[in-house]
Amino acid sequence: MTTTSSRPVRPRRSVLYLPANNGRALDKLPGLSCDSVVFDLEDSIAPGAKDAARETLRGFFSDGRAAALPAGMEKVIRINPLASPWGGEDLLAARACRPDAILVPKVDAPEDILAVEDALAQTDAPAALRLWAMIETPRGVMNAGLIARMAQTDGARLDCFVTGTNDLLKETGVAPLPGRPWLSSWLMQIVLVARAYGLDVLDGVYNDFRDETGLMRECADGQAMGFDGKTLIHPAQIAPANQTFGIAEDQLAQARVIAEAFALPENQGRGVISLDGKMVERLHLEMAERLIEKAARIAARQGEGQTT
């Protein structure tokens, strides 16, 4: 069984979608401060442009531009569903590009992830290549627990859930009201199962990239729900997401206190300790260590000239 601590530790405050065929946007990536970028071969690419987008992406990864991106910027490729006319070619291209992860869209059931894992195994893809799953359909929400459970199987690649709120709204007919009152229960269900099986989980996009006030409000809403970060559609949304989903100083200080307490000789090997009158378990140590490492990665990026 894999454990929560075996997953890569990465800040995912801001995750920018970028059409794979947008050459100008690709060239601007080195100057951006998003934690992750999703090179999109799916929704943002018209059917007649899929092949060209795939070739543009291959060129970006093969000519050195992808390797020149800021250290720590996570590179993810969103493919089309395997059952689509483009999914198979997308997966082969993505595997050849060697990104950090592949984002699988419209995941309805565990079998959708298994199919991608099997295909990657047949091509001897490196174990470091992770999978993200988009939960964006009614069936996906209903089966989210079964899908997330796959992260606990031997050799699992599943690393992160991404909510597709636009597709959920479209498929259910739910009104897109401020505050997302009718979506909230589904979003909380996705967060709950992600946490149950040690996955990161990302909030959906905010469509009006000119409305910074609305974006900040929705980021705060998502952060309060427990999301690790927000998916974005425009570079102007990066700084607000980084700010809202950043690690607070008091959180980091408390994490360090927990780590230092468990490191004391008298606490070595203990599963539970008393700290400031409260019982603290080893699972809290694992959470603290991940938060400390995530904070260090954020600080390293800022030290390289990236903005928050």
Detailed description of the structure:
This protein has 308 residues and is an alpha/beta fold. It folds into two domains: 4-244, TIM Barrel (Alpha-Beta Barrel); 249-303, no CATH class. Helices cover 43% and strands 16% of the residues. The chain has twelve helices and ten strands. Helix 3 (87-97) links the parallel strand 3 and strand 4 (101-104). The two termini are 36 Å apart. The model is unreliable at 1-5 (pLDDT under 50).
Taking all Cα atoms into account, the compactness measure Rg is: 19 Å
| Helix/strand order, N-terminal first | EHEHEHEHEHHEHHEHEHHEEH
CATH topology of the largest domain: TIM Barrel
**Unreliably modeled segments:** 1-5
Number of strands: 10
Strand content is 15-25%
Overall body shape: globular
For the record, what CATH class of the largest domain applies? Answer: Alpha Beta
**What percentage of residues falls in helices of 4 or more residues?**
40-55%
Protein name: Citrate lyase subunit beta/citryl-CoA lyase
Family: Belongs to the HpcH/HpaI aldolase family.
Organism: Hoeflea halophila
Cofactor: Mg(2+)
